[in-house]
Amino acid sequence: MNFITKQNNNCLFNNFSVACVLFLLVYAQTAVGKLEFSPTLTVSETYTDNVRLGGGLIAGGAGGIGFGGAGASGGDFITQINPGMLVTGEGRRYEVNAQYVMNNLIFAKNNELTQIRHMLNANATTEVLKDLFFIDGDARILQQNVSLLAPQTANNVFATGNRANLEIYSVSPYLRHRFQSFATAEARYTRGFVKSGFNGFINSQRDSYQFLLNSGSAFRKLGWGFNYNNNRIHLDRANTTIELESYIGNLRYNLTRRFALTATGGYERNSFISIRGKPSSPTWTAGFVWAPNKRTDLQFSAGQRFFGDTYSATVNYRTRLSTWQIIYIEDITTLNQQAGQFGALGALNVGSIDAQNLLLGLSNFLTNRVFLQRRFNASVTLNGTRNDLTLNVFQLKRKPYTAEELDEDLLGFPLFFNDTRQLGGNVAWRYRLSPRTNFNMNFSFVRFDFLSVNSTNDNLFFTANVTRDFFPDLIGMLQYQRIDRLSNIQSGNQDLDLSANAVTVSLTKNF
C-alpha cells in the first residue's frame, strides 16, 4: 500500500522551537522527578456512505483545496492504524505533557486518498533558576479546516478537500520576581511559528515582548499596574511585518472585600495597513469586579479602542454538581497570535467527535489577515452520579482589518470573508451504564453567515457511541455519526450530496 505523505517532504518541526522543547524534556529527566512514557495503539474501521461530503461544492474555490481532493460522492471503508505515545512528567521544578499520534488512513475504494497524518500536542515548563527564571515550550501538529465555505469535519476520516496540516511552535523564556509585598514583575519573550504546506497560506513568525508590573499585598485599598505588549508578526512569503503594540496602565479600587472598581488607560500603536481607518489611538476602559460569594465571580468592563466601543465580560458560578460560565471577549488579532495564546485550534481527535473541541475547531479557518474578533460563549455542565450533561452556545464575529488580497490565493473567494458571523451550540450527554461502560451522545449545530453576500451555511452533527473498558488497558468503541450541511451558496453541481452517515468500530490498547 502506497501511503501519500506529500506534506512530510517539508520539515515537520522548526529546529529552533523543537530544540527548546527537547531541552525542557532533557532538563526534566535530570531534575527531581520522573518521566513516564506510555505507548498507545488504536485500530479502527469506519464505513461511510459519503466519504467526500460534497467536497468541491465551490468550483475553483474552497472545495477541493485541502488534502483529500474533490470528487464524486460515494461510500468507502476507512481503516485507521494509529500508534502513539503519551509522555507525562512532574517534578519540583518542571512539568511535561506530550501526546503524539501517527494517523494512518487506508481507504478501500479510493486508494489515492490513503495517507499519513501526524498529530502532536506537547508542552513543557521548567523553573531554571528558583523563583526567577522560567521557560515554557509548546509544539503542535494538527489538521485544520481551511474554509468555512466547504464541508466541516473534526477528524481526517472524511476526504472533504477542506483540511490542511498546521504546525504551531513556541518557546517563551521569562523572568518573574516578587518585590516582597510591594509589587510583582514579569518580563517575557516569546518566539512563535505557524507553518503549513497549504498553497496560499503564508507561514509566519512571531516575536512577542511583554512586561508586567503589578502592586502587591501592601496596597490593600488601591491596586495599580502597568502592562507593555509588543507583538511583531512576520509573514514570510509576503515579506511583511505586522506590529501590534500597547502601553496600558490599570487601577483597582476595592470598595469592599468582594467588590472593586477597575479602570485602564493607555495607547495602542499598530503598524499594519488598515482598510478601516487609523489603527492607532488612545485606549481606556472602566468596569468592576464582584465576587458576592465563594461560588460566584463577575467581571465587566467597557471603553474605547481604535476600532470603536469595546466590552469584556466574564461570569463564573459553581455548585457542587454544576459549573456555569459566560465569556465575552473582543480583540484585534492574527492566526499566529491565536495559535500562540490558545495552543492548538483543535485537540487530538482521531476516532470520535468531542463536543467542545468540535466547536472550537470549526470556528477557526485559515487566514493571513489581521482581524477584529468578537466572541461570546455561554456554557453549563451538570454532573450527576451516572449522568453528565453539557450545554454550550456561542457567537463569533470576524471583521478583517487588512486587505483581502492577502487571502485571495488561499480562499479563492475573499469577498465571502469580509465579514463573517458564526452561531453555534451543542448538547453533550454522558451516561454511565456500568463502571466500565459509558454511553455518549452529542448534537452540535454551527451556522456560518457571510454577511457581505447574504449567504449561509448550516452544519449539523450528531454522534452517539458506546465505550467499554474490557481491561484497564484495552478500550473498545462503537460509534454512529451523522453530518448534514445546508447551504444557499450556488454551485455548478446542485446534485452533490452534502450529508453523510458513518459507523466506526475501534480498539485502543495502552501499553
Automatic annotation (TrEMBL):
Q: Which domain of life is it from?
A: Bacteria
Spell out the protein name for this chain: Uncharacterized protein, PEP-CTERM system associated
Q: Organism source for this protein?
A: Nitrosomonas marina
